[in-house]
UniProtKB/TrEMBL annotation:
PANTHER family: CCHC-TYPE DOMAIN-CONTAINING PROTEIN (PTHR33223), OS04G0172440 PROTEIN (PTHR33223:SF8). This is Retrotransposon gag domain-containing protein. It comes from Arachis hypogaea. Residues 63-153 form the Retrotransposon gag domain. The lineage of its organism: Eukaryota, Viridiplantae, Streptophyta, Embryophyta, Tracheophyta.
């Protein structure tokens, strides 16, 4: 029985492209998932900023682009016809053709389903939310907006913010940063204590007798 195998939409020259010696592969945090408020044009711009000077190499620019996709959008890339994308222009055109949507009004329910992604900073999450909120046809008080944003945070953060009065989004972002910083400091302290508590092997003393 033949095993299925993946065949890339990119030519071999793109797949084999390597970053210059001494340069690390780009760390791409912002992922495009085709959520409400996401813009394909804005995503491409963010991606090019993330890879920096590597954008000057067309092969590398193409090679790392799939790393900026997630969920069904990444599945779309996997299903592209083998060797069908030869240039960056072809890739960008195909991406926009598949996922570009005009800025339509969004409902409150669309705001509620927005969630903070793993590894996404609170600031990037706020930007995504505010972009969607700007097209919401329902006017909501700031207190309700804060509640909706908190719902999009993970369970740990929601628990930490329980019974904490937060007046606006700026205050919320500040509190989240404080909680995350405190969590990192606690983890660092625990790791240091573990290292200190590890038993060490004492060297046995050897007595030398002078003859």
């Amino acid at each position: 029985m033949n095993q299925p195998h993946f065949v890339s939409a990119f030519p071999q020259v793109v797949q084999m492209a390597e970053v210059p010696r001494g340069v690390k592969n780009p760390k791409i945090i912002t992922k495009f998932a085709r959520e409400v408020g996401e813009s394909t044009t804005e995503h491409v711009a963010r991606y090019l900023v993330a890879i920096g000077n590597l954008a000057n190499d067309e092969n590398l620019k193409m090679k790392f682009f799939p790393s900026s996709l997630t969920k069904n959008v990444f599945t779309w890339f996997l299903n592209l016809r083998p060797n069908s994308i030869i240039t960056w222009n072809q890739l960008e055109t195909a991406f926009h053709a598949q996922f570009y949507r005009e800025k339509l009004n969004v409902a409150v329910t669309d705001l509620v389903v927005l969630k903070r992604e793993d590894g996404e900073t609170i600031d990037d999450y706020m930007i995504r939310f505010k972009n969607a909120r700007s097209r919401c046809y329902v006017s909501l008080p700031e207190s309700e907006i804060v509640k909706i944003v908190v719902m999009g945070l993970g369970f740990y953060m929601r628990r930490k913010l329980l019974n904490v009065h937060i007046s606006n989004l700026a205050h919320l972002a500040k509190r989240v940063r404080q909680v995350e910083l405190m969590k990192k400091e606690k983890e660092k302290y625990r790791n240091e204590q573990k290292l200190k508590s590890k038993p060490f092997t004492r060297k046995e003393k050897v007595a030398y007798v002078t003859m």
